[in-house]
Amino acid sequence: MEHVIAKYGVSERLACRVLGQHRSTQRKIPKEPEDEAALTADIIALATQYGRYGYRRITALLREAGWRVNKKRVERIWRREGLKVPSKQPKKGRLWLNDGSCIRLRPEYPNHVWSYDFVEDRTHNGRKFRMLNIIDEFTRECLAIRVNRKLKAVDVIDVLSDLFILRGIPGHIRSDNVLCGEAVAALGQQISARRLAGSALQVE
Hints:
By secondary structure, the chain is α+β, with helices and mostly antiparallel strands. Helix content is 43%, strand content 15%. The protein folds into 2 domains: 2-80, no CATH class; 113-203, Ribonuclease H-like superfamily/Ribonuclease H (Nucleotidyltransferase, domain 5). The chain has 7 helices and 4 strands, in the order αααααβββαβα.
C-alpha cells in the first residue's frame, strides 16, 4: 500500500477506498507470537513423520505433546508453509507406500490401460441384469458393453478377445473382479493366440 501511495501521490484514504481495504489495516503492525518458530518446526516435523495426517490430526498430536493451540492457528501455519496431504486415491487398486505417497498406474496413451467393471440393475418386473463395461482410461471411451442376466468370467474373456482383434492388445487391464485360475489361464491363451496371429500377419 505504501508504495502505491508514494508512486501515484494519492492519499491513504483514497488508496484504501479503491483497494477495498479498511484504513486500520495500514496502521496495525502484525505481531508474531514468540512461540511461532517453535510451533512451526514441530508442525513440519509431525507432518513429515505422518505423511497421511492433515492439520486437524496434527493439532491433536500437538495438544498431546503439551501445546495449547487451536486448529485455526495450525491451519494458518500449515497453509503458509505449503504443507498438504497427498491426494487420496480411490480404493480400487491403490498402493500406499510408507512415506505417505501413492503410486498408481496412469494411462499415457490410447490402448495403454483398459478397465472393466460390472454394473447391476433390475428390469420393470424386478429381475436382475448385469452389464459388463470396458473403457479406455486415457480416452475415456467406452469400448464395449455386454448386457445379460448373468455374466461370468467366460463372457469377460469373450468380449476382451473381440476387442483384441478390433483394437489390439492393451498394455494393462485393470479390474476389481478377480478371475478364477482357469479363466486367467484361458485369457492368457487368448492373448498369446492373438499375438501369434498378429505376428504372422505382420510377417506376411
